[in-house]
From TrEMBL:
PANTHER family: SAF DOMAIN PROTEIN, STRU PROTEIN. This is Dihydrodipicolinate reductase domain protein. Coiled coil: none annotated. Residues 366-431 form the SAF domain. It comes from [Clostridium] hylemonae DSM 15053.
Length: 451
């Protein structure tokens, strides 16, 4: 019994030591052992290329396969990363496996080839397409590969269902570190762990707000070209859709709610945050606490969580530590590095079985679809960040009662009637494509969760 007890104690001690590893130490260990975290990337746009470049400079993790609609775009990601390995185009999982075993990098136009490759443990979806996100994640579930969901547009549409299915398959479903939802939730978890009451959580908006912006406008085309961005992607930020989508993801991961439809979005700076995001009777803008929101000022690229406490001892301690006189206090992370931080989430999933952030089992908020201009019956709705519509955040219960169309389902919908500028588009106004995997999963989620 004594020997068995000592062996058990040694195993427990070893487990504790494993949990105490800092992530950099763990990555060095994986590098020495020749057992890196092996990832596949779906989508080699601006963000995807950043991920490949970042992984190239890291230990203990490899990006073995890159997928894009064109193989040359995928190969360009490796070239820009400074990769010295041979890059080969593959068409089957078997070809991909042989390339990886030979120390080569693989590119392909078929996401299934990447997900099915035996060596791959993590898949990163950087497509930004809700439909593609649904298809990629279902393939990951089938082949038991952790999914790093950079595709927030997909997450806010069917995230609760995807997370549940992933957990049942024994894999991790996670939003990404570095994107604003992941960065906000990092601070939120810190605050909740310490027992603070969260008054508000949010971000600084990183572009001027123009809710009617479209990618055909000269000033935005010019700005997109200077930043080497797809104009559609820039407009998703400018018209506020991306902010609504990101804060909806935070809401669904935490239970925090928008105080009003579309949130307040006040003009304010970092020094003002704790005062502005307080209750009206305290001189702020809020009707309730426990909200998601954003500010326009010098906050970007930071994220924030406003907290409060009624413990006199803690209040005194916060005052002594120059956190202000209260009643609210600012926790501020002055940066988010977007895709540059994404490899950390892949490691968390593969090594520790943890997510950076994930939705709860139901929706708290919904991103609804609002017309940017007058629309005519028979028109086919385009993508988020284009000409037809923008996203706005609303309580999920309110959206459900109003039959409001989730913005993730809008692309490709055919209008049944004319719609006025600024009108909320509802399910009964559109004909949806029943072939959509995203739509089928959303209907399943609605049936299972009631929201």
């Amino acid at each position: 019994m004594g020997l068995k007890r000592r062996q058990k104690e040694e195993q427990t001690k070893k487990g504790r030591q494993e949990n105490m590893y800092e992530i950099d130490t763990k990555l060095e260990e994986l590098e020495r052992a020749g057992t890196p975290v092996r990832t596949a990337l779906i989508g080699a746009g601006q963000m995807g290329k950043d991920i490949v470049a970042q992984i190239e400079g890291m230990k203990g993790i490899e990006c073995d396969i890159v997928v894009d609609v064109r193989a040359d775009i995928a190969a360009e990601a490796y070239r820009q990363a400074g990769c010295q390995c041979e890059v080969v185009e593959v068409h089957t999982a078997g070809e991909a496996e042989k390339a990886i075993a030979a120390g080569k990098k693989a590119v392909t136009t078929d996401y299934k080839t990447a997900v099915q490759a035996a060596q791959i443990t993590n898949v990163i979806d950087a497509t930004g397409s809700p439909e593609m996100g649904a298809r990629v994640t279902m393939e990951c579930i089938l082949h038991k590969k952790h999914i790093v969901m950079m595709n927030v547009e997909c997450d806010i549409t069917i995230g609760p269902l995807l997370r549940r299915l992933c957990e049942q398959a024994g894999i991790v479903y996670s939003l990404t570190a570095g994107d604003e939802p992941g960065s906000i939730i990092e601070v939120y978890r810190f605050a909740k762990a310490l027992g603070f009451e969260v008054v508000a959580a949010g971000k600084g908006k990183n572009n001027p707000l123009d809710i009617y912006a479209d990618p055909g406008m000269h000033k935005w085309k010019e700005k997109a070209a200077k930043r080497d961005m797809n104009p559609r992607m820039l407009i998703e930020f400018v018209d506020g859709s991306k902010t609504m989508i990101e804060m909806c993801a935070v809401s669904n991961a935490t239970g925090l709610k928008p105080d009003v439809r579309g949130m307040h979005g006040p003009e304010c700076n970092v020094k003002d945050l704790a005062r502005v995001f307080s209750l009206k009777e305290q001189g702020g803008i809020l009707d309730q606490t426990g909200v998601v929101d954003y500010g326009i000022g010098d906050i970007n690229p930071g994220v924030f969580v406003i907290v409060t406490t009624d413990n006199k001892r803690i209040i005194d301690g916060l005052v002594q530590r120059d956190m202000g006189e209260g009643p609210n206090y600012l926790l501020y992370r002055p940066y988010h590095l977007c895709s540059i931080e994404t490899p950390i989430t892949a490691v968390q999933a593969a090594v520790y079985g943890e997510s950076t952030a994930h939705p709860m089992d139901h929706l708290t908020s919904e991103c609804i679809t609002v017309a940017k201009k007058d629309l005519k019956a028979g028109e086919v709705l385009d993508a988020i960040g284009e000409y037809c519509y923008r996203a706005s955040i609303e309580l999920a219960e309110t959206a459900r009662e109003g039959n409001m169309l989730p913005v993730g389902l809008a692309k490709g919908a055919v209008l049944k009637r004319d719609i006025k500028k600024d009108e909320v588009i509802t399910y009964d106004m559109v004909e949806l494509d029943n072939r959509s995997v995203l739509l089928q999963l959303r209907r399943m989620q609605d049936e299972m969760t009631g929201c």
